[in-house]
Design brief:
473 residues; alpha/beta; Rossmann fold; binds glutamic acid
Length: 473
């Protein structure tokens, strides 16, 4: 008997949605409206590469217009397809709702492998893609706001901003047309590390959850816990770095495009990055052994497995080999619906993508707010706070008779900079959302997994927006 093919990424998202929907009282028609993608824009445009013209395929999908603007990254990958972009756009809606970022979900994809192009050629493609979006009114600070995703970064966002500005320079809020920009070009401090930092906060909350740790039969806390990471891109790198530096994690295995490495003693992520820059590969890193195949990282015995690359990485064929207590979905959709069900039954805790990697869009929201306010966070209050705290410290010093040295004073009386406020806002967002998910599970005891609870929380918020509009009374 032939096996049923595994559901696609989009089908997996739909299945997870349907499962969660059974835990809600949202009417069927409204559920259907929330589920579908509102606008799908498929484009093909020519770009001159060397002496020849190439036709590039690209997409922008706006999943939900229940809030404006819509928001979501742009991915450059050879694997981009309409279904993939639809799945990613859908996840953006639920992600934004879950962490109270007031946007609808969207996503873009350009079907190219960035490795095949020079920086100049990538710039041409990015600018042409942006032009297509402008022409169809698919971009703008109040319409749809792209950001980085797999295969793109602040460089591409700067090109998008500049192209948009060429057409719409007179718009006072033009800088809010895209987020994830370089700090020098209307970006915000802390956006680069935001997704990874958010992933760390989410893992930390889970490991401080006594009930979850009891279920997993592990001691609560992060110190000394082992972690394996698939993907050393922006998200994987910052997740590993922050988990190591602020959480005391031991990173025992890392997989990248060129292979995978393992070390019982732990891998220093910052040193590994330097090694990769020097040699072009993570392999042969001193103190670590090369693994035979890169997929072995997913099969390592560890406390937390962090898939931080692409979707569908843990599936029917390899799910039985996973030995982690916790799977932390830093990437979007790394576990298929089939693998999700199997691992759930086995007792593995999966921290779902729509929650765990929401740090990126959260700080994008802060960047967008900064662009609309035309002012850096902290500019107004930093000095005022600093002076107030200094007076307080001086008073305590006088009253207590204990002298406080200048170094201590500087630490206590410091006013917040933009990066402090961004990190604080991000931490608050991730901690609050975690507890919302857990409260949902307490309110609805039939829900057994964090993903369904996250979905239920998000669906409730989107549904209530629709109801408040009077569309679905
Ligand atoms: N691409 C990121 C995500 O999947 C960030 C989106 C954004 O900042 O708008 O969440």
């Amino acid at each position: 008997m032939s096996k049923k093919p595994e559901p696609s990424f989009y089908e997996s998202v739909q299945q997870n949605f349907d499962r969660a929907a059974t835990f809600t009282n949202i009417p069927a028609g409204l559920l259907q409206q929330i589920k579908v993608c509102n606008s799908v824009y498929y484009m093909q445009f020519p770009v001159k590469i060397g002496k020849e013209y190439r036709v590039i395929e690209a997409y922008r999908v706006q999943h939900s217009h229940h809030r404006s603007p819509t928001k979501g990254g742009i991915r450059f990958s050879q694997k981009v397809s309409q279904e993939e972009v639809m799945a990613l756009a859908s996840l953006m809606t639920y992600k934004c709702a879950l962490v109270d970022v007031p946007f609808g979900g969207a996503k873009g994809g350009v079907k190219i492998s960035p490795r095949d192009y020079t920086s100049d050629q990538l710039q041409k493609i990015t600018r042409r893609y942006t032009t297509e979006l402008v022409r169809k009114n698919f971009i703008g600070p109040g319409i749809d706001v792209p950001a980085p995703d797999y295969g793109t970064g602040s460089r591409e966002m700067a090109w998008i901003l500049d192209t948009y500005q060429t057409f719409k320079g007179g718009e006072i809020d033009y800088a809010g047309c895209v987020t994830g920009k370089p700090v020098s070009q209307n970006g915000i401090r802390g956006r680069d590390e935001a997704t990874g930092r958010g992933v760390f906060y989410g893992i930390r909350e889970t490991l401080h959850d006594k009930q979850i740790c009891k279920h997993l039969n592990i001691t609560p806390g992060t110190e000394g816990k082992t972690m394996a990471i698939q993907g050393l891109g922006n998200v994987g790198y910052h997740t590993g770095r922050i988990s190591q530096q602020e959480g005391g994690f031991k990173i025992i295995s890392i997989a990248e495009y060129e292979g995978a490495i393992y070390s019982d003693a732990g891998i220093d992520i910052e040193k590994l990055l330097i090694h990769r820059k020097k040699t072009g590969s993570i392999l042969d890193f001193p103190g670590a052994e090369n693994m035979d195949q890169r997929k072995q990282t997913l099969e390592v015995k560890c406390d937390v497995l962090v898939p931080a690359a692409l979707e569908n990485q843990i599936h029917r064929e390899n799910m039985k080999k996973v030995k982690a207590h916790i799977i932390a979905e830093a990437a979007n959709g790394p576990v298929t619906a089939v693998a999700n069900d199997y691992l759930m039954k086995k007792g593995v805790v999966i921290i779902p993508d729509m929650y765990l990697n929401a740090g990126g869009v959260t700080v994008s929201y802060f960047e967008w707010l900064k662009n609309l306010s035309h002012m850096r966070f902290g500019r107004m209050e930093k000095r005022f706070d600093q002076n107030t705290y200094t007076r307080l410290v001086d008073l305590i010093e006088k009253q207590s008779g204990r002298s406080i040295n200048q170094k201590e004073k500087d630490v206590i009386a410091r006013g917040a900079d933009e990066i402090d406020l961004v990190r604080s806002g991000l931490e608050e967002t991730m901690v609050t959302a975690y507890h919302q998910i857990r409260e949902t599970m307490l309110r609805k005891p039939k829900i057994e997994d964090l993903r369904s609870a996250a979905f239920v929380s998000a669906l409730g918020k989107v549904a209530s927006d629709y109801m408040n509009m009077g569309i679905f009374p």
